[in-house]
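Write out the 3D structure for:
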Amino acid sequence: MSLMSLKRFQNELIIFLLLLFVGFSFFYKFSAEKSVASKKIEIKESVSEISKVAELKIFWDKKKVKKEITKFKTMVSKAKVKRFEKRSGKLVAIYKNLSLKELNKISKKLVATHFKISKLNIQESGKDRYDMEFTCKW
């Protein structure tokens, strides 16, 4: 009797299986589109990261960093530079008896650079005279 009932509902069973197949195919289609869209976003992000790295490589060029470091030594006279020490990735500079104009010049240049200032000490040594000490890293 069960075989007879299957033959009786054969068309309905085929339609049900076809609808089930169509449902699965739609689900697969939408999940595949979502996967492709997420992969596109990942690729765009990685390309933008690579371009940022290339820009930073140009920005942190050793020649440019060396030029900026030597500017700190030549901004004021050699007699006012008490200590100027550069090591790998670190600069320590001590200036004595700076005028207000020289102090502002050095401070503006220090703030305008892309170095990380780890220590900055400015003290008044006399009337309109200042001592400055800073340490920065790159």
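Residues 62-137 form a domain with the Alpha-Beta Plaits fold (CATH 3.30.70).
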